[in-house]
Amino acid sequence: MQTQDLTQLSTKELEQLLKSRKAAEAKKAEAERKQYEATRDTKIEAIITTARTMHRELEEFKQFCHIEMDEQAVKLSDYGKLRSNSKGGFTITHSDGSMRVTRRRDTEPSWDERSTKAIELIKDFLGDTIKKRDKDLYEILMGFLQRNEKGDLEYSRVMSLFQHSDKFNDSRWVEGLKLIKESYGNHLKGFGYEFKIKTESGHWQNLILNFSSI
Asked: For residue 162, what are the contacts with CB-CB under 8 A and spacing of at least 6?
């Protein structure tokens, strides 16, 4: 292929050549973009289609677990193998000891409107008294009152706060802790399931099927 001598071209011819080259490059870039997007979209569609199928199957499987374990709970109760104070969670194990299914009662802690007043009282006490004499302790205790992204108190933090309950006898502190206790509730989110098989080495291995949000 003979190389074109650009020095022999006029300004108009150079401009036309540049225009043609830019157009060719733009066309190539557009073709590459369309090819990339087509390949990407095909992969996304394939993945989402499979995900939808698996999600539907998990929903059906969880419903199957509910039915089977509800049935088993009745039989366990009649057979006297389920505690009278059981709230729905229990474990069943195969006779040969190789398989195990657990129905887990999943709950969510919550605090009602009394917790708002409780926090006000505790923060007022901590700000007036503790902050002046022990800033580190003040920051630790205040950290236990932090709410999560949903605006709720964290159960583990509240329990840590109660570990310090006997350190002060100020009425605001005492009343605040009392109100937090009274405002607490534990609500059933639903039942979760755990599936285990015993390996050749004798250890239990979890079969991970995460459908807690289904």
From this structure: 177
